[in-house]
Write a structure and sequence with these properties.
322 residues, single chain, 8-stranded mixed β-sheet, 4-stranded antiparallel β-sheet, alpha+beta, 25% strand, binds (3R)-3-hydroxy-3-methyl-5-(phosphonooxy)pentanoic acid, 36% helix
């Protein structure tokens, strides 16, 4: 097959994955729930090239080497192994958002790479198989494979830990306005962060509370109860960041601007603009609202000098060939 191009969305976790029960297999400590994002994505082109002696990867115009390249080559070796192929790949990947700033570029990146490389090697994998493979590259990437609103079931084995769609993108008209306050790569990667999560004295309680939280959010999603849903996601984000901040060493992903926006969201809610925040492993704030409030919130966010850029996302389909 000639050049294969895939578009894969980033996803925002409403119930987060933080901490693993198996490091090597990237098996999470808990199930998680997310939404794929329409305007925040990775485009990856992959070509087999028999002249290459190694995989040649560029991301956003920069050629990868060292650890970053090794991580990708290891992932491609898995796919080459499945396809019984030896050939190296020429890969070009572009994100339309800042990488490493907590907008899950590893999720969209590994989801795109997994689908593109498997197609280049003419493997016809099911959604479940693709999700499992993407998880082995970067945990949350498994959630960027299926469409719309997604659940990654915790699973006990590699075979049973994958994501599936709960609802298609048009199920619920909600929006994620991502307020960008910092575009630098994060100092501590999520891979490192997961590995120290257990050192927080609050970690055990977090994990113990997960099954109840998951069933409550699923109920709120089923009933399209936005107030209940919002309350759960906001508390959940603060819960995960509490674990991060109390790990050894402590991880502080927030900037002062992050807190300003969190407080503004609570204030706007008090004024009747129903919205809730969530934050991944970075300083940027995801403001979640029903579509009817998107314009009002866009104006509010754009008028804040703390915010450099706002990405407005609707729910999206998962990784697709284009
Ligand atoms: O897939 P990773 O290793 O980049 O971890 C993602 C961690 C969070 O974004 C903080 C939470 C999540 O579930 O996406």
């Amino acid at each position: 097959m000639d050049k294969v191009t895939v578009k894969a969305p980033a996803n925002i976790a409403f119930i987060k994955y933080w901490g693993k029960k198996n490091e090597k297999l990237r098996l999470p400590a808990n199930s998680s729930i997310s939404m794929n994002l329409s305007e925040t994505y990775t485009l990856t082109s992959v070509e087999k090239d028999k002249t290459l002696q190694t995989d040649r990867v560029s991301i956003d115009g920069t050629r990868l080497n060292g650890e970053a390249l090794i991580r990708i080559t290891k992932h491609l070796d898995l796919i080459r192994g499945m396809a019984k192929e030896k050939m190296f790949l020429r890969i070009e990947s572009k994100n339309n958002f800042p990488r490493g700033a907590g907008i899950a570029s590893s999720a969209s990146g590994f989801a795109a790479l997994t689908l593109a490389a498997s197609k280049a090697f003419e493997l016809n994998l099911s959604e479940k198989e693709l999700s499992i493979l993407a998880r082995l590259g970067s945990g949350s990437a498994c959630r960027s494979i299926p469409d719309g609103f997604v659940e990654w079931k915790v699973g006990e084995t590699s075979e049973s830990s994958y994501a599936h769609s709960l609802y298609p993108p048009d199920y619920w008209e909600i929006c994620d306005l991502i307020a960008i306050v910092g575009e630098d790569s994060k100092k501590v990667s999520s891979t490192e962060g997961h590995s120290i999560a257990e050192s927080s004295p609050f970690y055990k309680a977090r994990i113990a509370g997960m099954p109840k939280k998951i069933s409550e959010i699923k109920k709120a999603m089923k009933n399209k109860d936005f107030a209940k849903f919002g309350e759960i996601i906001e508390t959940e984000a603060v819960n995960m960041h509490t674990v991060m901040m109390t790990s050894k060493p402590p991880l502080f992903y927030w900037l002062p601007e992050t807190v300003t926006i969190m407080e503004s969201v609570i204030q706007w809610r008090g004024q009747g603009i129903q919205s809730y925040f969530t934050i991944d492993a970075g300083p940027n704030v995801h403001v979640i609202c029903e579509s009817k409030n998107t314009d009002k919130l866009k104006i509010k966010l754009k008028s804040m000098h703390e915010i450099k850029k706002v990405f407005i996302n609707k729910p999206s389909i998962g990784a697709t060939l284009i």
